[in-house]
Specification:
Number of strands of chain B: 8
Distance between the termini of chain A: 38 Å
Helix content of chain B: 40-55%
Shape of chain B: globular
CATH topology of the largest domain in chain B: Rossmann fold
Largest interface: A-B, 13 and 14 residues
Strand order of the largest sheet of chain B: 3-4-2-5-1-6-7-8
Shape of chain A: globular
Helix content of chain A: 40-55%
Oligomer: heterodimer
CATH class of the largest domain in chain B: Alpha Beta
């Protein structure tokens, strides 16, 4: 039986594929869909943290198919659109994204693509019908199709570079800090002597896609990169290092480096020197936050809401590094039954907490948070409503994040540890400050004023401020609300 | 929806079973009897009304839609034998696009053009492509476009299988205002056990036979001349068969919601008939005994 899902935070497969390819420099997406698909994607990203990249939303070429294209087939309309796009939009690679309509009608898009490729143009296509799945499906399948076909479109000799690694598993946009995180992982891996294909963002691009086959290792940081990683393994014999999440904190980063060193020879001295410096840097900065940590962080309990990768990354860090009690984790991306992926993080999640939930239904998420009574939430902007009701802060770590621009800030790696701590302490501090402000304004207000007077009749003025205790005022405040 | 003008009848059946021939002859017989008739071919092959209009060219509704120009009724319809207004929905070339969506768009367009208000028909016959393969082909029996459907079937298993599928569609849509079944038109009837197979099928599914149409050389000859039997051989016995069928359909108000057989049930039923036919063909039992 079907049920209502309140405020689902995940889009469709086309949405995921689109936000993936639009972040690869040099790629021009061409949407073979009705006009609304691209615009909805644009609007969904417009209101959230990272914004849209150059070829996105309103500027994405599309076939804007109409009823006659459904009835008679839209392949010739697509041919026209690809040819026109190549004429007016400069790109190194044109990726055709086929939508629900194209899938249902059965347009022979492959034939159209072959025709254009035979004319020497770099075009490839992928079928990501929205109804096939969520954005994770779109990410995996578009990347897998690119790896399958890029060599036919942009041929090059395979020349394995023993120090080159591919980074997969981080979906642009679905992790609000994806850009910064990729940069940080690249910085760390380069710091220990490797070269990195990040694919996305300013350091990525079509060149990375072409070079993917030359890598010595693919590091996949979530279950969602399994399919493209497997394609690279099957086609080009590139081994896969499957990690449950991006690392957070020096310890986890070192663990990653050790795991990579099992496949790729890395100079030990270089690792030591790199991590030595990083540790000094991290300790130096985090030391400055010790007073804040002592004042606000003790005995705080938390609930984590987000994609599995984010929940594991933050959960382990909060547990191990900050000694926080994780009352529950809510996975918004994982499927209740996932037979397509081999990744199984159950044990790891159980180490974080016994209460593991899988849902993207905001009603259920709010009910879980309400019953778990945490003192802080690590989640998305959608959790702000329940947080306001429970009078607790939300540290925004998962999609969607509204009213905040996040460009290259990280919450993974080593520098990401620092910015995560900055964000966490800032949010908690600001929240406490706001609460104090509210209490003070209440105490000085009409009703609070009476309380103030009553108290002052019984006690001396010098004791007044301390006697209007926080709990009394909080009680009155909640009664008023 | 505004009150329907005329009786709207959908005629379904497996491909090649004689739907168009039967529908055209019913239309011709109704026209001959003085009724105003529209026949709408809902098949991408767009050959439903060929014998009514002497195989003359008729642009299809969807051809006109593809051109994108403003469409007028006179561009997509032509009067054929007895003044039957012939319309072909048309569709994409085989293997391309979505014919089901085409039928949907075509029927909507005809309604937008006020076809029925303009022509004021007594009967509108929709000749619909083969099996009800997807939602698009169920359009004529859904949403109150027609209130009755007939299915043309021979005694062949696959034809009855297609009929059973139509029953499933009617069963699904009838409770929400879809068409009900008027009956089964038993086509290509030959001597022997053929009638009995169809009769047994209608009994099992709680339906009835609207009429029997025997296999006849008159039908084949008339079609080769590009005419209906009513027009080409008006005095033949076959023409009378169609006249009687038309008369029955015109007057029949006994509409039912069929009880389609389940997959296993249908298979079992067919197997049982297989055994009986084997016995008949090998002289184990007589036809009467087998039935």
């Amino acid at each position: 039986m079907s049920e209502v899902i309140k405020e689902p935070r995940n889009g469709c497969a086309l949405h995921g594929a689109l936000q993936t390819v639009q972040e690869i420099k040099g790629v021009v997406p061409v949407i073979h869909a009705n006009a609304g698909c691209g615009v909805i994607h644009y609007l969904a990203n417009k209101g959230t943290s990272g914004g849209n990249s150059s070829y996105s939303g309103l500027s994405i070429p599309g076939t804007a198919i109409q009823e006659r294209h459904v009835i008679f087939g839209g392949a010739s309309r697509l041919r026209e659109q690809i040819k026109n796009t190549i004429k007016v939009v400069k790109g190194d690679l044109y990726v055709i994204l086929n939508s629900c309509e194209s899938a249902m009608v059965g347009d022979d898009v492959d034939a159209m693509t072959r025709e254009i490729v035979e004319q020497g143009e770099p075009v490839l296509d992928t079928l990501v019908a929205g109804f096939n799945g969520g954005p994770y499906y779109g990410y995996e399948h578009v990347m897998a199709d690119i790896f399958r076909t890029i060599d036919g479109v942009k041929p090059s000799e395979k020349k394995t570079d023993p120090y080159l690694v591919n980074i997969l598993g981080i979906i642009p946009g679905k992790d609000p800090y994806w850009q910064g995180n990729l940069e940080e992982i690249k910085r760390i891996l380069e710091g220990i002597g490797l070269k990195v294909n990040v694919f996305f963002g300013p350091y990525g691009g079509v060149r990375d896609l072409i070079n993917a086959k030359n890598a010595a290792l693919t590091i996949n940081f979530s279950r969602w990169g399994e399919l493209p990683a497997r394609i690279l393994e099957e086609w080009y014999e590139i081994p896969i290092l499957q990690r449950p999440s991006l690392p957070l904190g020096t310890e986890q980063v070192l663990d990653l480096a050790t795991a990579v060193a099992e496949t790729i020879h890395i100079d030990e001295e270089r690792i030591k020197s790199f991590f030595g410096n990083e540790e000094v840097y991290e300790n130096d900065l985090l030391l400055r936050a010790r007073e804040d940590l002592i004042e606000y962080d003790n005995s705080q309990t938390a609930v984590l809401v987000g994609d599995e990768e984010q929940v594991i990354r933050l959960g382990r860090f909060l547990n191990d590094f900050l000694g926080k009690e994780i009352k529950a984790v809510i996975l918004t991306d994982a499927l209740k039954t996932d037979e397509e992926h081999v990744t199984d993080n159950q044990e790891l999640l159980k180490e974080i907490t016994d209460s593991i939930y899988i849902t993207s239904d905001q009603k259920k998420i709010e009910d879980i948070i309400r019953s778990e009574k945490p003192e802080v939430i690590f989640g998305s902007s959608l959790e702000k409503r329940i947080a306001n009701r429970l009078e607790i802060p939300v540290v925004e770590t998962s999609y969607p994040v509204f009213e905040k621009l996040i460009l290259n800030k990280a919450d993974a790696g080593i520098r990401g540890t620092i910015s995560f701590m900055e964000e966490y302490i800032t949010v908690v501090n600001q929240y406490e400050a706001e609460k104090r402000k509210q209490l003070l304004s209440y105490v000085k207000g009409e009703k609070g004023g009476k309380l103030w007077q009553e108290q002052s009749q019984k006690r001396s003025y010098s004791k007044k401020l301390t006697l209007v205790t926080q709990s009394q005022t909080k009680e009155s405040l909640s009664a008023r609300m | 929806m505004a009150e329907k003008i005329g009786k709207h009848i959908a005629i379904y059946g497996k491909g090649g079973i004689g739907k168009s021939t039967t529908t055209s002859n019913i239309s011709a017989a109704l026209a001959e009897a003085g009724y105003k008739v529209i026949q709408i071919g809902c098949d991408p092959k767009s050959d439903s009304t060929n014998t009514l209009r002497g195989n003359n060219y008729l642009p299809t509704v969807l051809d006109s839609l593809r051109e994108g120009n403003k469409i007028h009724l006179e561009d997509i319809s032509v009067k054929g034998f007895g003044g039957v207004l012939c319309i072909e929905s048309g569709g994409p070339v085989p293997g391309v696009g979505c014919a089901g969506r085409g039928i949907n768009a075509s029927v909507s367009l005809l309604q937008e053009l006020h076809l029925f208000e303009e022509f004021k028909p007594d009967f509108v016959l929709y000749d619909v492509l083969g099996d009800v393969v997807c939602g698009g082909f169920a359009v004529p029996i859904r949403d109150g476009i027609t209130d009755r459907a007939y299915v043309v079937s021979s005694s062949d298993f696959m034809a009855l299988y297609a009929a059973n599928n139509l029953f499933k569609a009617i069963n699904k849509y009838a409770p929400t205002g879809g068409a009900k079944l008027g009956g089964v038109i038993a086509n290509s009837m030959k001597p022997g056990y053929h009638r009995e197979i169809v009769e047994d099928f209608v009994e099992k599914t709680g339906t009835s036979i609207a009429g029997y149409v025997n296999r006849s050389i008159d039908v084949q000859q008339s079609e080769l001349y590009g005419k209906t039997v009513i027009e080409a051989k008006p005095k033949s016995a076959q023409a009378d068969i169609y006249r009687n069928l038309a008369k029955y359909i015109a007057g029949n108000e006994d509409l039912v919601v069929p009880n389609p057989l389940g997959a296993a049930e249908l298979k079992e039923w067919a197997r049982d008939w297989g055994d009986r036919i084997y016995d008949i063909e090998n002289g184990v039992v007589s036809v009467a005994e087998a039935i």
